[in-house]
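Backbone-to-sequence.
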């Protein structure tokens, strides 16, 4: 049951409840109010409630089906050749970043070692001021 129908059933139920009384003009300044049979109102309300429940269940089923379709589509995309190539590229980038970090660390170590040797050469024993 589409959502529009569920809303229509709800609005109809409310309208029946609010406007269930029938007013007739019987003469000058006199009116006759006819109220609906309480059993009929009870039955109509029960039927409207059942329609609402059925509509809500159908909406829930449709939402679950849509969610399943989305999950299956995402799984298919993830398994596509393009996604596999992207994943492989990301792995290669990760390896490249690791290699670059290792090389940078080694270069920094060499620079520190060189600076240390220069400091040792400049500060021979007895050169203290």
């Amino acid at each position: 049951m589409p959502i529009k129908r569920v809303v229509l059933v709800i609005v109809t139920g409310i309208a029946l409840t609010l406007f269930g009384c029938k007013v007739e003009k019987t003469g000058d300044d006199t009116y006759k109010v006819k109220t609906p049979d309480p059993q009929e109102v009870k039955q109509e309300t029960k039927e409207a409630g059942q329609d609402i429940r059925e509509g809500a269940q159908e909406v829930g089923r449709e939402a679950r089906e849509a969610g399943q379709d989305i999950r299956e589509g995402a799984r298919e995309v993830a398994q596509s050749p393009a996604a596999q190539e992207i994943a492989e590229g990301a792995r290669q980038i990760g390896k490249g970043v690791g290699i670059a970090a290792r090389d940078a660390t080694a270069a920094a170590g060499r620079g520190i070692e060189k600076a240390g040797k220069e400091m040792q050469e400049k500060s021979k024993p007895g050169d203290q001021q």
